User: Fold this.
Amino acid sequence: MSKLLNPNQPYTFSKIFELQIEPDDLVTEFGYTLERNRLNLPQYPGELDRLEERRSRIEEVLPYVSLTSETSRREVLISQVVLDLVHYTKAQLRIEYPLKVTEQLQGYLDYLLRTQTEILVIEAKREDLTYGFTQLAAELIALDQWEKTPPQSTLIGAVTTGSIWQFGRLNRAAKHIEQGLDSYRVPDDLEPLTRILVQSLVA
Assistant:
């Protein structure tokens, strides 16, 4: 089987996105497997004291903001969710975090959140979630092989346009990635989305 990536050429996560490789083909390239299913990710059961305020603030500004650029989506939607996530979990947040594992697994992670025992990556995309998930899969594989990743058995990642979020889960022992079929919309599904994100960092 011919290689999709040239072994003599370096690649970044964003370059992998631009190549428009199907997610299952990409993970096979690195010796992983992939399936698409409903993840039924666990949700944090405790109180989220900023949830209703955050929903109201997002709904208030949406009629007045153009979300045509990735920057506007990050500023108006994604950063709101991420900053509340830091509030709830006290996770360390790194934005545009540089990561290099190999010449073919390197680049910048849009949002990397880390507690002492868990790590979470969030990839922001302007619109294309299909190949956005290919990029997320590459980032999850890189984190799986990164020596600084906590010894958690599964890795959770999300790819989002700001208004739509989708999840991926990597089983590290099986080298198996699940692509979630569920989509979460902001602000409509802000509560289940936030509860999944929080739980992924406090598990």
Observations:
- The chain has one domain: 19-39+48-202.
- The beta strands are 33-37, 92-102, 105-114, 119-124, 154-160, 164-171, 176-180, 184-185.
- The chain is about 35% helix and 25% strand.
